[in-house]
Every structure is written in C-alpha cells, then in structure tokens.
TrEMBL record, chains A, B:
Active site: E260
CDD domains according to UniProt: M32_Taq (cd06460)
Database matches in Pfam families: Peptidase_M32
Cofactor annotation comment: Binds 1 zinc ion per subunit.
SUPFAM superfamilies the UniProt entry points to: Metalloproteases ('zincins'), catalytic domain
Stated name of the protein: Metal-dependent carboxypeptidase
GO biological process: proteolysis
Coiled-coil annotated residue ranges, if any: none
Extent of the signal sequence: none
Cofactor (UniProt): Zn(2+)
Annotated positions binding Zn(2+): H259, H263, E289
UniProt keyword list: Carboxypeptidase, Hydrolase, Metal-binding, Metalloprotease, Protease, Zinc
E.C. number(s) listed in UniProt: 3.4.17.19
Amino acid sequence: MENYNYYITHSQKIADLEHSISVLNWDQEVFMPENSAPRRAQQIATLAGIHHELSTEKKFGEVLEKLKNEDLTDIQKRNVSESLKAYKKSTKLNGAFVTQMSKTISESFVAWNEARSKNDFSIFAPKLEELVKLKREECELYGYENHPYNAQLDLYEPGATVKDLDILFKDVKHQLVEFVAKIASAPQNDESLMFQKYETTKQLAFTEELLAQMGYNFKSGRQDLSTHPFTTTFSSKDVRVTTRVNENDLSEILWSSIHEGGHALYEQGLLDDNYGLPAGSYLSLGLHESQSRLYENNLGRSLNYWKHNFARLQNIFPENLNNYSAEDFYKAMNIVKPSLIRTNADELTYHFHVLIRYEIEKDLIGGTIEVADLPRIWNEKYKAYLGVDVPSDSMGVLQDIHWSHGSFGYFPTYSIGSFYAAQFYNQASKDINNLDELIKEGNLAPLLNWLREKIHKHGRLFAADELCIKITGEKLNFKYFMEYAKKKYSALYNLN
Amino acid sequence: MENYNYYITHSQKIADLEHSISVLNWDQEVFMPENSAPRRAQQIATLAGIHHELSTEKKFGEVLEKLKNEDLTDIQKRNVSESLKAYKKSTKLNGAFVTQMSKTISESFVAWNEARSKNDFSIFAPKLEELVKLKREECELYGYENHPYNAQLDLYEPGATVKDLDILFKDVKHQLVEFVAKIASAPQNDESLMFQKYETTKQLAFTEELLAQMGYNFKSGRQDLSTHPFTTTFSSKDVRVTTRVNENDLSEILWSSIHEGGHALYEQGLLDDNYGLPAGSYLSLGLHESQSRLYENNLGRSLNYWKHNFARLQNIFPENLNNYSAEDFYKAMNIVKPSLIRTNADELTYHFHVLIRYEIEKDLIGGTIEVADLPRIWNEKYKAYLGVDVPSDSMGVLQDIHWSHGSFGYFPTYSIGSFYAAQFYNQASKDINNLDELIKEGNLAPLLNWLREKIHKHGRLFAADELCIKITGEKLNFKYFMEYAKKKYSALYNLN
C-alpha cells in the first residue's frame, strides 16, 4: 500500500493548499480591509503556484501510473483514475502558457470592470481578443473531439459535449420559448409585497432559521454577507455561505441564502474520510448547481414550503405581511417576465440567458465569430429569444464577469443544474413517502437524507450520466423540467 | 543584482506562507465553526511544513552567503545579515527534532489544558518534563554563551542575556517591591464604577473610536472579538486586532483594545516596500510590547488621556458615569493590589509575576531545578514577592499557556516592553512640544508620528540596544519606569 498511501498524503497536501487559498479568498470577499488587496493577491498567487507545483509533481504522476496496475478496490481504482485524469490535464499546459493566461485574465478583468462602468465595450475588446486567442490555443493543448468548445465544457462538466447540449438547448428554445409566450399573454401577478421595507437583521436571522431547517450544520459552517453570494469549502466540516440583504427587496436574501444553502448541503454531505480525494469531491458544476437549484426553486419557490414557513415570516414582519396569505407570497415569488439581466431572471426565462451565452461561446471558441461581433450578436439574440431591446452594453454583453475571468463553458452548467434538479426532485417525490406533506410540516430531513444517499456521499465515484441513470433510470432529460414548469406555472397563471 | 533579487523574491514567498498561516489562525480564533478544527490544524501544518522547506532551502542559504561579499547598500547588507542569521538558526534543528518538538508541544498543550481544568499538576508534569528535556537539547543545538537560557531568550529578544536580565530584575525586586509595599499601606481607591453594567455593543463602538483616535487605520485592519485578545499581521496593510467584552467590567475591553491597538500601530507603521524583509519586520518582542504598553499604560491609564475621552464615555453611558469625574475614573483604573493571576495584575505588581517566571525558567532550562519542584517553588515565590498564598495549582503554576506551547524566554519580554515604554515615553515628552496638552486635546498624531519616525519605520535595521541609544541616548534603563511609577502612584495614593 506504499504507493496508495503516498497518493493519499500527496492528494491531501494539494487539498490543504487549495482550501487555504479558499480561506484567503473567503476573507477577501467577506472581511478583508481594502488596503490589503495587493498583498493578498500576491499571497494567493504564491499559494496557487505551490498548488500547481504539487499538482504537477513528476513523482505524483509516476505513482499514479504505477497504481493503475496495482491491486486496488473499486473505490481506490476510481480515485486513481480520476486523479490521473486531473494530473494529465494540469501537465498539458506548460508554465509559460499558464503565466501568460493568468496575466491576460488579470488584465481582462480590470478592462472589463472599466468597460462596464463606462459602458464602453471597446475598452474590453482588445483584452478579450487576446484571451479568446489563448483559450482557443488551450483547447488545442488539452485536446478534444469534434468541437474545440468541448475542451472548455469538460473543465466544468466532465463529459458534456456540444452534441448533447445542442439537443438540450434546442428543447429549451422550442418548448420553453413557446410556453413563456403563453404566460406573457396571461394577466400578471402582484409582486409588490416583496418590495416593502424589511429590517435587515431580521431578514438575516430568518434565513439562518431556513438554513437550519434545510439541515445546514452551523457547527460546520456559517453565513456572512458579501457583495456576490457564494459558497466555499475548507473541508466538509467547514462549508461557508454568504448572502446579501436588500432592505427594500425581501427576495434578494431569500433566494441567495436558500440557493447557497443547497450548494453547502452538498459539500457538507461529502465524506470527510475522503478529504482531498475524488471520492470526497463534488462531481461536476452541473451536479453542484442541481443541489442549489433544487433547494432554491423546486423546494424554496413551492407553495408547500411556504405553507409551513410563511406564518413564521408573518410573525417576524407582521406589519408587512399580516394582510397577505402564503398563496399571495407564492405568487409574488414566481413572476415570469423577460428581462435583461441574467442574475435577476425568473426560473424560466433564466435559461434563455444561458442559451444565448452558450450559442455565443460555442461560436467564439469555435472561431466562427469574433470578439468584434459580440455586441451586435448579443443584442440580436436578446431580441429574438427574450423580445427585449438591450439599451446599453453594460446591461448587455458586459453584464457578466465570467469571460473576463477566462471562464468559457461555465454558463451551461447553470441550465444543466436546473434540469437535473427537476429530474431528481421528480424522482425524490416518488421515492419518499408523502414528500409534499413532509414539506408542509417543515420536515426537510427525509429530502436531505435522500440527496445524501443518492448523490452527496458518492463524491466523484460515478460520472454524472451514470449517477443520473442510477438515481432516475435515465440520462438527463429536459422533459422533467418542462413538466415541472408547465404544471407549476399553468396553475399560477391560470393557463389551460 | 541577480542574487539580491532572488533573495527578495524568495523572502517574500516565505512571508506569503507565514501570513497565509496567520490568516488561517486568525479565522480559527475569530470565526471558524467548531467542527472545522481537525482539518484546519492539518492545513496549517501543511503550510508550516512548506514554510520550513522554503526557509531552509539550500539555494537560499548559498545565495545569502554569496551576498555577504557583494557590493550592497547598508540597508541591503543589514537585510542579508539578519536573514542569514535566521537561516542558520532554522537549519540548526534537523527535521526529526522539529517533528519531535512539535508532537511534544501538541501533547503538552492537551495535558496542560486537562491539568488546569482538573487542578492536577501531575497530569501536566510528565509531558512538561519531556518538553523541558527537548528545550535543553534545543539550547545545545542553537548554541549559546554563558547560560543555556540565553539561547531561548534570543528567540524572542535578540541580544537579551541572563547577565543583563539579572541586573534588571534585581532592580525590580528591590526598588519596585519596596514601593508597592508603601502603596499597600495607604488607603485603597474606589474601583466600583468599572463594575457596573455596560452594554457590549456600545463598549465595542467606543473602543473603535479610541483606536481611530490613536491613529489605527481601519482601511488596513479591523477589530473583532476572540477569547484571548491578539494582534495579527498579514502585511502592514492588513493588521487586525481582537478584543473581548465583559458586560460587567468595562476595564476588560478598554485595556485589551488599547493594548492590541499599540501592537497594531507598530505593524501598520512598518514599510510595505520592505514586505518580507528584515527591514519591514518588527525588531523584537520587547520592542513590540513597548508599543502596546506605551499606549495601554503610559497613555491609556493617564489622567490627560481621560480628560479628553471621559466626557465621550459619559455621553455613551450617562446613567453609569454622570456622577463620576475623569479623576474618579483615573483612580479606578489604577488600583495597585498584589494578586494571583498575571493577566489581571496592575501595571506595577505585573512585573513580580514576570520576575517569578524568569527566575523559574532560568533555573529550569539551566538544569538547577526540575519540573517536580515547580509547584512548591512557584508558591514560595508568590508568597515572597507578592505576599499571597496560592490556593491551587490552577491559579498558580498552571495558569499560563506559555510553557505548554514550549515558550521559555518569552515572559521577560513583557517587562522589557514596559520598561522600554517608560523610557521612550519619557523621551517623547521631551521631543514633542506640549505632549501633555496635545493628549488633553485628544490629538495623538504627534505621538504616533514620533514613534513612526523613531521606531516603526526602521523595522529590524538596528538592534534593540542600538535603537534605544539612538532614541534616548542610553541603553534600556529601569530608572525611567521607576520614576514614572513613583510619580504617578505617589500622587494617586497620596504618598510623600
């Protein structure tokens, strides 16, 4: 077992570095004083450099190769093969390329920030061009089959391909666009109750109750405030969430906290014994997002959930809510309305935003369009899919941080996650006796136990496709999301 | 300049590791959820291991040796010689010894914790014996002149020796013991106003005002709560303090915040351009403590300081304080009274606590007494120097964490710091026009500027002795503390 023990020790050391970087990043987003930024960036870069050295260490690769031929258990074999895949990936990019990429990303981020605040795409364009060029090169270095964009997709959703996503987004385009058009012709519901004045400390305390009810373990985590909500993991025993509060918009904190709580439950459900190993790591970003979306949408925006929790909320904000019912609240949180900004979109039109980014990224990485075309294409697609005119690039092609970070292939995981969520939730409703009743009683433990058993505890032991078949009997299928959407929103908008 | 540039880059990398560890430690003390502890310990150990590898890297030592013969500026020369000293020190302990020490310290800490809570020295004794044995060995490995304890002292206060400290503590023993006896025979002042109920959030807000008034830069730091107050540095642009609040004892937060604020001003005053180099590092623990004690005692427990700040405090707590004057408050915060616990001691009898630890450590490391003798010797010395009977080992020999951490030679820096503080403050009063008047007006900037110019900005460019002579014209001299004490407390206790 000498080689396997070395493998564990070295993998855990890599994990220690990775999680230490996460602590520094978390602090940066949550508590760090402003003057600290430059030195903190340097400290993170130093740790990242050491992390890279350890991840690509020659001996590590040699041991992994040897382990392929050793007599291991199935779990050990899976750990080794996943680690070897990651090792090979990290060794495909040479140091000079990594440095060049990292420098270009830093500059792109600065340029994007300025471009967005000045509403001037031309400030961002030259840097983005450099970055896209490097990304295209990166695809060649990693290697791919059929379409270079597959190399990018694989970074976030192993196994995802243009071929499969084209089919998925074709469904989105046809079925969902049509259904949303029907909703648009129905009378709109009232959401004004969300936009009253709600005291922030009470909002925070209420979401802590919701997190505890979901099963989030505050002895292995905490919730703080940050500009952009996120979940971060230092081990499955320390998984932190952040949220944001708007005194005049209750929805902001609710969906942030519940969404991040879903992510955090996944991470808290990974087995600490497998710390630093694939068996103790999340499967893919799509699977991760399935957990956050399941809690945010399938549970958190359901009537049964609020049948239990609305009374408590009324109790905290009697002056705001005593004249409303759980049903009013449910309607107000499920307004479907095409809009310009992805992060503010409802759970249906959200996928048009992703669809647009998917189509653009695929063509951009594939080389059939160029950076200079982006504003025009962006605006055309928003008109076509969402029916909205984009008034400025700041509210259009410059709205997301992702490209400036060099993340291409990330957006699709948001939709994949939602579609997995619908499919999993459909299965959970079958597997768990009286799930609806349990939720109405505020008993969320059976749902969490189901997710723990079916998904969390397996870490990366199965591929996403395999796991989905194991749980639901088939691969990811858009129909479950469509069924969920039709059932829920037909009732909400009195469609026949 | 190739070698010097390598030297800077490598030193900054070491500093990045050191400060990253500090972030992880800070989080552990301030915000970390309880279940996180084991993995966090492992993450810190991993970073510490890499830090040790970098600090003892062969090439680093070779470059430092080469640089000794290169044409450098005085500052560069000083950087290189200080770094070489540190390098040689770290390479004197081999890996096996470091591991053994670190393991023994972990076990000692656990044993000490249990021993203290059960009031049973015998639980701690065997581990402490192992640790003392290793510490004696460590002195031999480091090397020393005249007395092995000098090797330990040098870790915290470079240049400090048994010879000099014997003289210093002889003065403490004779002059201070005699003066405290005089105070003891005078009528005691009233401190009851400190022990009313003070709302904690208001206490916290008030200390933030005091820190800002001192010149603490909240854009380069923050104040949080922790069980044991401390200051920690991630760079001179991010120096954080912690404090503690007791709703029924206002003194707790006041002296914690002002004390840590003094430490933090020193760290914020180091030059960011010298990040990671001796020129950008604090000089010694004694010098560090001089900054905290100067603010805590010479300034923070002075009448002039409260002539300015008491009105504001009254304003915050009118019901508690409207019947009192600044003078009443000043008397209440300067009660001299022998006691059992070092951390609760007043600024005079405090040094008897240190004296006792100094005498014990010197003999223990020197091998003239053994661990088994400690409780008896401890109690005898408390009777002799403080006139108090020690009712239990928990309140006696087991009260401090230091020995369980393997820190021998640390305690004297507390007294050295106070004595430096008195000597520096005396000089500042001469150098700064109308210092008393400025303080009465709440204008503390000239004092901070003086400390910045005389001490902070020099980092480790001078030895402590040298710097003290540069500032005050002579080496550390106990008489300044004694003069300060006599003047202040003769007035407070109406002694003639």
